[in-house]
C-alpha cells in the first residue's frame, strides 16, 4: 500500500438506506439517477474502502460490467469502468489475495491502517460498507456522511449501525437534495 501523500482527506461514509434504516442493497432504487449520484461521489474521492463482504459482492459483478460482458445501461457501464480504475482498499481478517484491478488489503490495526489511508488520500476515502462503518464510527474515524435515503420502508434488516455505537453522533447538515425518483441525498459532516 503506497501511503505517502502529505495532505489528509476525509473519510466519507456513503450508502443507500430506506426510511426505516435498512441497508440491504436490494431495497434501494437502482436507476440512472442513483448511479449518477454514486458516480459523482466516486469521482470526487481518491479511493474506495470496503469490508470483505461488500468487496466480494462488488467484485462478483462490476468487473464483468466494465469488460462489457453484461448488458447494462450506459450509466452503469460508466460506473463500472471508473470503479475498475479507482483504488479499492479492503479490510479483512480472512482474505489476503485481491485480483480485481487496483485492490489493496488493509491489514493489522484497523485504526492505524485506515488513518494511514486517510493521511495518504487528500481527495478523501469513500466508505461503502455498513458493518465496517459501525467499527470506524466507534473509532471516531468517519468525517462525513453522504446517505441516499430511499422512499421505502423495508420492514427488515440489516439496519444502519445495527451493532450500536458508544454514544450519539452529532451531525451538521451540509445539504439535502431530493432526486426525481423520490430519494433524498443527505450530506452531513461530523460535528466535533
Automatic annotation (TrEMBL):
Domain Bacterial bifunctional deaminase-reductase C-terminal, chain residue ranges per copy: 12-184
Protein name: Deaminase reductase
Alphabetical list of SUPFAM superfamilies matching this protein: Dihydrofolate reductase-like
BP terms from Gene Ontology: riboflavin biosynthetic process
InterPro entries linked to this entry: DHFR-like_dom_sf (IPR024072), RibDG_C (IPR002734), Riboflavin_Biosynth_HTPR (IPR050765)
Pfam family name, one: RibD_C
Entries under Gene3D superfamilies matching the protein: Dihydrofolate Reductase, subunit A
GO molecular function list: 5-amino-6-(5-phosphoribosylamino)uracil reductase activity
